[in-house]
Amino acid sequence: MYWGIGAHGRKKKLTTPQSVIITVFGVSRNTISIWKKKDSTMQYWLEHLQDIFNYPKIDSIKFNNNSSQFDIDDIKEVFGKETKVKIRNTGCHAFNQMILQNFLLVKKLNIMPSNFPNSKILKRILMQNFDHLDIDSELQGTTTMTLDELLLINSRKSYIGFLRISAKQINKFIKLWQKGSNPCMEHLYIVNLRSEDSDKDIVMKGIKHDVIPDNQTRMFKNVGFTDTSLVTGGIDIHRMDGTKATIQIKKGLMVFTVQMYVWLDHCVV
């Protein structure tokens, strides 16, 4: 959904829109409509559309180019009930901080390293207990994160795109998880730029494990998600408390991916 703001480009306040462009996404094609009612507020349009489609929720809100022109308090007042926030290239680090402060309690957060000064993701963001923390799934740049910062992640499901981390550090991370680190983690997906040490043997060195045949499949489900994941084969390991996890390692031409599924009771389908 895109909110048309008229020819004069209203700034700061979410003023009455001149028109609203509605896109309904279909299986074979999308339908685009332009509705005009110049005396209707943003709040009216939102509630009107929710009534039409019988869908009272706001699944997500995306902050993109020029978002920083608008008053964050207005945005929060009108659209403050969503469960997922996506921050892209707003062009303003200060505004990004305001987004994070005003939408602190969302369940799912989608960010990029470039949203932060010096591309350093705030530790308090890593430590927050999101259902899903998505760091650059669109692979717009590289993510720099130390092992200590990786150990701070407290989300149930995490995706980290183009992470600059060695296979040896991933090996240390897994060993520390076995000792009790990252207790909330259910699913971790790392896309790593391939390097000389991008090797499965280095990742698993010194870790007792069982190799699962590729023809064996299991169903996995994260908290807060309706869809299930099919886990094929992999490498099973155990934490000191007996919790099982499956690690999948794949090497491509340019990237080296590591996924880790933690089989908590509510994740087993």
TrEMBL record:
Superkingdom field: Eukaryota
Lineage: Eukaryota, Metazoa, Ecdysozoa, Nematoda, Chromadorea
Domain Sdz-33 F-box: 122-190
The name this protein goes by in its record: Sdz-33 F-box domain-containing protein
PANTHER family: CYCLIN-RELATED F-BOX FAMILY, F-BOX ASSOCIATED DOMAIN-CONTAINING PROTEIN-RELATED
Annotated organism of origin: Caenorhabditis brenneri (Nematode worm)
